[in-house]
Design goal:
This protein is of the alpha/beta class. It folds into two domains: about 140 residues, 3-Layer(aba) Sandwich (D-Maltodextrin-Binding Protein, domain 2), CATH 3.40.190; about 110 residues, D-Maltodextrin-Binding Protein, domain 2 (3-Layer(aba) Sandwich). Helices cover about 40% and strands about 20% of the residues. The protein is built from nine helices and 13 strands. A six-stranded mixed sheet has the order 2-1-3-12-4-13, with helices on both faces. A five-stranded mixed sheet has the order 8-7-9-6-10. Helix 2 packs antiparallel against helix 8. It is elongated.
Length: about 290
């Protein structure tokens, strides 16, 4: 009986050792094939031109797709504005980002490498559009004299720079033309502020209306499109110098040639419904970024 009892104990201990070994092997196999859970993540930096929840929802399928094929977690990191996004890159707290390279304030310190550029239905371009509520009766820029007007951010192309170029061509000085000027920080707040009556008019990206999921056809909505800016080159995805060459090459391939990967469909479908992005084109030099 005593021998039998010892045999049972020995068998149980051996079983535990065997299971632990199998578990370790399985975890090692998972690490080699999928994601190293203990590896530091790769951070994708974004200026919240839309509400953070909307950006997260739109980008999460893409980040999961990248994580799966890079064997590393890819996570989004938000900056408060373009300047703080640049600061995150300088401190190497992000590895690649969606960034307005034409407005770098510390360009001599921040060395970037091009990855790719998003493509919309208008190719590599988009526009800023000046909007008002249809019920307001505002239908042309001259109607906005003395009104409250909302911009996005002083560095935003569609939300400040290009609208002001349009005003300049019309000999309009915004500070004296408008009754009050506001900066909303992102396009969602501007659009909703116009709809809610907080601002008489404002300027937002036309990518709101280039997708199938949000604010679809403006002609069938509460909004009046008063004017559009000239074409604006879409901001590129760029990496900081020092990102491992193999990772950089793989990120470019995953974004610009997704047809190779079966899992890409849902990720790219979400990009279109969220942001109007149909795909990406490869960039080979910074000249292509800033042209």
């Amino acid at each position: 009986m005593k021998r039998f009892f010892c045999f049972l104990i020995f068998s149980f201990v051996f079983f535990l050792i065997f299971v632990s070994g199998c578990t370790f092997f399985e975890q090692s196999f998972e690490k080699g094939r999928f994601i190293f859970e203990n590896d530091p993540p790769i951070y994708f930096g974004v200026f919240p031109f839309l509400e953070k929840e909307i950006l997260s929802e739109g980008f999460n399928p893409l980040l999961k797709y990248l994580s799966h094929h890079l064997h590393k977690k890819v996570q989004i990191k938000f900056a408060e504005n373009y300047s703080s996004l640049e600061e995150l890159a300088l401190k190497k707290k992000i590895h690649f980002m969606w960034f307005n390279t034409r407005k770098r304030s510390k360009s001599e310190k921040l060395i970037l490498e091009p990855l790719c550029r998003p493509i919309s239905e208008e190719g590599s371009y988009y526009r800023g559009i000046i909007i008002a509520k249809k019920a307001s009766g505002l239908s042309k820029i001259s109607d906005l004299a003395g009104k409250t007007f909302a911009y996005i951010d002083p560095i935003s192309n569609s939300g400040f720079v290009y609208p002001n170029e349009l005003f300049k061509k019309m000999n309009i000085e915004p500070t004296s033309f408008f009754g009050e000027i506001k900066f909303t920080g992102n396009h969602d707040k501007c659009l909703n502020g116009v709809l809610n009556g907080d601002y008489d008019a404002g300027v937002v990206t036309d990518m709101f209306f280039k997708n199938t999921g949000r604010f679809q056809n403006p002609s069938n909505s509460e909004l009046e499109i008063i004017a559009s800016t000239s074409k604006i080159l879409l901001d590129p995805f760029v990496s900081i110098v020092g990102l491992e060459r193999g990772l950089k090459t793989k990120i470019i391939e995953l974004l610009t040639d997704p047809e190779k990967y079966d899992e890409s469909g849902p990720a790219f479908a979400k990009l279109f419904t969220a942001f109007g992005i149909k795909g990406f084109e490869k960039l080979t030099s910074l000249d292509e970024v800033d042209k």
